[in-house]
Amino acid sequence: MTRKEKPFDRELFFRALADSTRLRIINLIGEQEVCVCFFVEILKTNQPKISRHLAYLRRAGIVTTRREGIWMHYRISTPNDENAAKVLTDVREWLANDTAMQLDRKRLDKICCAPQLPVQLQGSPKPAPVPVS
User: Fold this and answer.
1) Three-state secondary structure along 118-132?
2) CB 3.0 to 4.6 Å from 33: which of 1, 13, 22, 75, for a disulfide?
């Protein structure tokens, strides 16, 4: 017996995009894979809160994960629904042009490019470009 694929949940998708923390996470991911610890550092909030938001984005089909040892890497996932994929692309472009979102990206870039990671991030994997499949 094959597992049936759930129909696309448009309402869940738009609810996922209706939260400022989730929009900041989407913006920070960009074209990379990013570990939860970097979201915690940049967004200055706790790990359980970030994980709840990431789980919401995952249920909505906006992000996907890859585990590497103890680390979970998050990246943007293009929804199967072509209209949702277009909306997500447009939202990401809009975020990239927003001044506050650009400041988040600059903070992420500054931390990632520093000669040494902050103490709370030492040992964690730096964001990396998403491998092309």
Assistant:
1) CHHHCCCCCCEECCC
2) 75
d(CA 15, CA 57): 9
> d(Cα 105, Cα 132) in Å, to the nearest integer?
22
- Nearby residues of 30 by Cβ (< 8 Å), 6 or more positions away: 76, 92, 96, 105
pTM of the model: 0.84
The three-state secondary structure class of 94 is helix
Pick from 32, 10, 99, 24: nearest CA to 54? 24
Q: What angle do CA 65, 32, 56 make, to 5 degrees?
A: 40
Take residue 36 and report the two structure tokens written for it: 């939860």
The two three-digit tokens of residue 40, written as one number: 């915690």
Tell me the average confidence (pLDDT) per consecutive run of 10 residues in the chain, 133 residues long. Answer: 72 97 96 89 92 96 91 91 96 97 92 64 65 54
> From CA 33, how far away is CA 76, in angstroms rounded?
8
Token pair listed for 108: 């992420």
